[in-house]
């Protein structure tokens, strides 16, 4: 039996500046930014006062009042994106054995925004050590353990197969989709509704990134605050969002005449075993993840048409990643375009990996490489082709997307037109 | 390489025993670790009992550099990982980093650490929040810290599946072994016995408000009224079978089969998914129901959930068709740590040919279960099934069996 | 709590609270001119340490304080400079 191959047949995105794949892609391909001064709460006390926020009306996206009440914002994003992805795929899940349909949702920080708000109430503004349970909302447990996100998505789409939340920090969005692909490949499921969601823009998140100076203090010009690979970069801009996909086995997708966006051709994750927040300058572990993902895809470095970078805009990350690309791709690292959509939609922690997969898939769909916005001043430490400011028309059949997360996680995924994988 | 995943090391941290020998001795003797909460004053809350780990002094096990940046659950997990590696006779420094991975489950992350930082945020201001809040509370922290401490650079992961997630982590670890990784540390530890965690658990509506430690958590009993939570769990060392054999490792058993399902949306009228998870796990293991010697039950202690589990078991095994036990009646439910602890107990049952008991429960006959009650039952155990369920409808089943010689 | 002088002993205490101490390092020994990295403290530990100093002493230190002050002595001096500047203001 030949190994089962896994393809993406449905995509839906909720991103800052673009709900739905069309608006999302317009934003990216036009190189516009969605970063702004924080409006969700008064950011005045914080070091970093910018974020990439979504103007999201859950009712406009079909959520019921009960769903809105019980779900954290990130869970709402996940459910809306999952429904959209299933619609986009055209698949009739009710015609399948529900035990063969699974769900994986990635999230780095779960319901942290909901927990922050509820803690403030039950502790009466931090005054009570013995917090008051009589003020707790009934759905607090669903915030406490964010596997509720996967349960909500499963209920929304009618899945009864394997389900989980994948939470590997800022690589969750790649690892969730990679995990789902493995389940299909090994035969544990036929269809996976897989993606990731995070809605971390809350005081506790801003405060903890302030404390490690990971987010940019460039609050005076929010629209240009996220500057991956630029010499003036000085931290990331927090974002939020979700992207969810329908993954299927290739032959069954073809036999139902589904539109195939891309094959999940290769995926790997490694750890740097070095530091919870720090990165080794040589990028060796990310390079190893890239090497293994390419090997699984049976593709060579020079098959890669576009590298969708982690590109968070911290000094450390962009240097680390540049080294990893050179180490794994050799000379091709200098020939292939590399860009970071975090320049436009910020860094949405566990969600961003799936948003970057979505951007990669759309780059293949439209044969356009999205740019790195705000890249005006080259940095000698970052000396690859980062597609500054403007998108580039280019045949794009094979995309490498990577992520790097607190905890030391380094993940890489190769997406390819199904015909490009060597069999 | 066969790609078979075997367990060669156990690291246990349980309310009724710290370390595998203490846990196993207490469990066979029926000694419970459930009592009134001491970590904070539970008097104002409707539930006051928990399974607390006593006698764990982090400074005895970990370098002081790690203490300020870790939640209690991470300290316990790091110690348990050390114990598991020592039990396996593995020195991680002697193996290539990329050949070793870490896959853990988490339920609520480092909730006590998070509570302290939230308190500082809201009572003192944002500049009082610790730099460590950026990772010390989050779900991935145990995998990350175990990886760093032991130089493990191979495929790693973190899953959240409420109280079923611990089994999903072990299954993911097995997957990595099958795909070529030599060794994976896997399992889970949770410890959210702090006021903020307590309030969140109370909101879930499944905590027992019983006051008597011997009657508060009585799964399959007509008096079942919820569960007592606890803290702790287990980390296991999984290795590829031939590699383990080649180095002469003691093998506890094989991770032979796995199945996972989600329950349908409440009100859909479709049946719950536990039975299907069991059937998938048995098929995955290539095992008939008749070959299963014992089932470690999820044992929710909630009448509806107990009935659903009993129905699944009698459907697969027939009424009274297999010995069933729930040693977690001595520890409380340890969230993501509970299932890996049960897997450890199942492996010890394989080793010793003895099934640990379920305590405190007087099972309702209508459930049709052969519960191993009050004292251990001696029987040859070749194959064991471990079940776990999580809030929101997660069902996971794992088959372990004696390794082929 | 604003205090007038930041002493090496205060730094030792805050380092221990913020980040513990490497087992091979005697913080009570002659450490004042040893780089923090050689003492086993990496950037995260020092961020936590600096944050605690800022809160306890009511001073504000620059983002690049640690490149200016790579040793305990230079950090103590720098904090004291800020404290006296604050008194003069």
Automatic annotation (TrEMBL), chain B:
Keywords attached to this entry: Acyltransferase, Transferase
Phosphoprotein in keyword set: no
InterPro entries given in the database record: Beta-ketoacyl_synthase, Ketoacyl_synth_C, Ketoacyl_synth_N, PKS_Beta-ketoAc_synthase_dom, Thiolase-like
Record has Cytoplasm as a keyword: no
Pfam families referenced in this protein's UniProt entry, alphabetically: ketoacyl-synt, Ketoacyl-synt_C
Superkingdom of the source species: Bacteria
Ketosynthase family 3 (KS3) domain sequence ranges: 2-402
Example of a GO biological process term: fatty acid biosynthetic process
GO molecular-function terms, A-Z: 3-oxoacyl-[acyl-carrier-protein] synthase activity
Sequence similarity: Belongs to the thiolase-like superfamily. Beta-ketoacyl-ACP synthases family.
Protein's UniProt name: Ketosynthase chain-length factor
Protein source organism: Streptomyces argyrophylli
UniProtKB/TrEMBL annotation, chain C:
MF annotations from Gene Ontology: phosphopantetheine binding
SMART domains from the UniProt entry: PKS_PP (SM00823)
SUPFAM superfamilies to which the protein is assigned, alphabetical: ACP-like
Pfam families in UniProt: PP-binding
Domain Carrier intervals: 5-83
GO biological process, one term: antibiotic biosynthetic process
Keywords from the named record: Phosphopantetheine, Phosphoprotein
PROSITE patterns linked to this entry: CARRIER, PHOSPHOPANTETHEINE
Protein name: Acyl carrier protein
